[in-house]
Amino acid sequence: MEPMNITGFHSVTLTTPDVTAADAAYRTLFGPAVDAETTTGAVQLISGDTAGASAVRFTVDDLDASTRLLRRRGLALSDDPAPAVGIHGVTLSITDETRGEPLSSGAAPVDIVGLDHIVYTTAKPDRAVATLGARLGLDLRLDQTKFQGMRQLFFRCGDGFLELLVTAGTEVSSAGPGDDAIWGIAWRSVDLDATHARLTAAGVPVSEIRDGRKPGTRVCTVRDRALTVPTILIEAELQPVTT
Fold first, then answer.
1. Is 70 exceeded by the pLDDT of residue 50?
2. HSE-CB of 191 using CA atoms within 13 angstroms
């Protein structure tokens, strides 16, 4: 059997008490290039009592083969068109659907082109590594304890990455005792100056542009609570983790 091949992120699912406000916030974030569907599928918004991220969906090159392999690895995937499983507080799913041109309807220039990375938190790193690496098949590229003493593990996901942040003893907390969580999202911009200027003109609170923690990158923070999760923008980098 061929190994499963995750080709990238498809979308994240966000829960919010105010879907209308969140929808408007994401339309503003992505700008006039966004089409009639809120974010061309990159974000799915559902109504809930609290704000946060509840699921991440990955694209695979062979849905049937990937579904069979994940079930053989002990993940009880549903029989949905996008097979899913809830595990340790996060729903993981796979699909072979593509979203077309990232965040673009062709009506205007695009500056934000898609997901760069998501931050996935856990208090149990060995368990999370087993789920994300051994079961899901993501490629662990870097394990470091560096920024403010926090342990970070980086998994390749297409041309982006999943950052696993170990929460024990840090200010970032997981969803609940023993649970993992999707804590934050980074969106990739091909022109951070243009994105920053566009959002500032639209009245969106954004930080000043600063150097990213990875050499050669620039980032800024978007401080709009309607986005439901901590959000940063990062200038386009095709190699997020040094090989």
1. yes
2. 9
